[in-house]
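Complex record, two chains
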Amino acid sequence: MGDDRAILRENWDGRIPVCFSLAEDEIEQEKPENVFAHVPRQSYFPLVTEKVSKYFSQHVDKEKEFPESELLHCPGREAVESVFMSTVKEADALKHRSSIINSMQKKDHKNMFDQFWPINKKLMENTDEESIKYIPFRIYQSETGFIQKLFRPFSEEGQEHTLDDLIKHVLPDLDEDGNKRVLIQGIEVPGETPILWLSEHLSYPDNFLHICVVNQPSMTISDHW
Amino acid sequence: MSQNKTTSEKMSGIISKEQCFRCFKDMLACSDVLDDLWEIRYFETECYLSKKTIINVNRNKFQSESESRNEVLQEDTSLSNDEATEMYNNTDCQILSVEYHVLYSESYSVPVLYFNCHLPDGRLLTLNEIWSQVPLNYQERLQQDRWTFLTQVEHPYLGRPFYQLHPCHTDKLMAMVAKVPGGVARNYVISWLSSVGPVVGLNLRPEYGIPEKMAVTKEKYATTADGKDINVYTLRNGRQSEVRLIDWGAIITHIRVPDKNGQIDDITLGYDTFKDGYDTNPFYFGGIIGRYTNRIARGEFRLDDQTYNLTVNNGGNLLHGGNRGFDKRLWESEITQDGVMMRYTSADGEEGFPGEARVNVHFRLTAENELVIDFKATCTKPTVINLTSHPYFNLAGHAAGSLEGHTIRMDAENYTPLNENSIPTGEIARVKGTAFDLTTDTDFAQRLPAVPGNVGFDHNFVFGKPGWDKHMARVYHAGTGRQMDVYSTEPGVQVYTAYYVDAPKGKGGAKYGQWSGFCLEAQHYPDSPNNPTFPSTTVRPGETYKQTTKYAFSVIR
């Protein structure tokens, strides 16, 4: 487990500024004011947007035409917990062939959602006997679903794989002349960072590295700034 | 299809991506035959199965989310448009359109079932509504794990919401299934889907479980001297093995089986054409021997105070049914649901035998590479019947020419010693300490010079009472890894090592000479009609002669 506890702490407390605005075609009368919130990075929208939903729902008739071909239904907290646990299990399947999650008691599974750290410590373990098999990660680019592939933390020769290695493996055609930025937890991580370290320190609570590949803002915009 | 899985994979219940994709294609082949509407789709290099269908459920049950009556989702593949419309208008029925996808999960190394269920107006069912449709018995069992078992997720390829049966327990389920003999029905994916599918209304038809069906084809082979058709039947089991039979003599002309490298060879001696040798068949290659196989002393026996004189055709005795035994007769034949049935009626007095005997012999090639032969016979008068099958084997390939490299083990502790006329003395003798002791693995070729008489083996080994299905012998060829196990309900087995064979016109130009093959003919003992202490070969009207002999082929790597 990483000794870089400061980094874990920073992540855990990480937040993203978000602006919520009502879609044009939902507006009945006046357009309501936008809502700004500092949302915890390590959480899920349905858990933190209750007040936002309540506020906007005053301005629409009812929730019509939920875009169910695009969004997962969220009937309640349990749905979020379900997605979370499902992802945690998948991460353990990738890392340890599910050996750790299966050896945990059911109550640990249930408590993980609330008392995260003590239980997560087990999942983050990288013991000498059973090193991590595959790194759990998902890569998000706009307009497509996420990409998830099998990727080992070490090469056949025993060399540590880096973030650059992972990106090259998954997105071999990525624009090489620097038009794309690779972001994890909101940070542009140096490409030579070992992927195993990233998995131990910058994973989200569901034990996955969620990596965003976004377009570099164009030079003209930054000129204006 | 062959399960090329490593032992550890099988034990842990997981499956490789390649194996899973092969299972998908195999399942698709079944589906095409059954018109079950599964399709294979591709996403980049990944393939997956998909099926869209309509189901109808009880509308009342459906609308109430809390209560659910004891009804199961029924899949109605027979619905035509009219029927569907009628059902839609019927207020008791609720039509749902369902889409099932089966994907391979690299994270879990197992297949995963995804599905969506829509109302006719396009609305997706909610998770609770889906739960209300799950059969009651599953609901009870899964209630505690509700939120972990059935969840809504993002489809890994299509990126849109789908419901998923969580894969985290699939490996345990399949490891358990693999422990049960015959537990895996046809392939891993079909087995798994037939177990978990019913939870969400997907009930695979039982036909999916049938091992790749044996294919049997029939063609014209030749014509007899008096102008009748001889047909050849090819039995394939979809696992690389093939057996060919002709209805002349009910002769097995080819047995093609793989070696340890998957190389397939014909391992039985025979001819390329009818005229090359099957018409006279001097060495009885592959035939069904009867009405009495092996010898009857002086061609004579007594039954019910009557003496019968049969054809004497070999060394002063009757051998293998006479001048024209069953292997030189044209049989009737037909394809059955799992093989080929051959029938012959042996006339009253044929070769001197009393009574009209009706004989059925059924040949079947199983998915496990076993050639199973079932014999039945009845007679209009008291008679004697002793039938066997007579293929000559060479596990190195029919043309190998010798028994080098073959190892034999016979589970018999006794044999019937012969007199100078090749007829059993009547004694049952122990094999221990003699050249006939094959109870441990024995180099076949090297044992031959030690057998008394200098003609190799041509002896009957004794197991005892008839009607008991038992393992009789195992022959193994190390070079090819081929192994043959013989099982039979017969009390004895004749071991013959081809001393007298001289067939220069064998298949594919092969020349079969002395020691070029071996026979294991499950039978009643020779000359039983003249030996009241031997198991009886008498068959009276109203009785049925029955026996089953099985040749099981395998490879040892």
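Note: Chain B has a mean pLDDT of 89.
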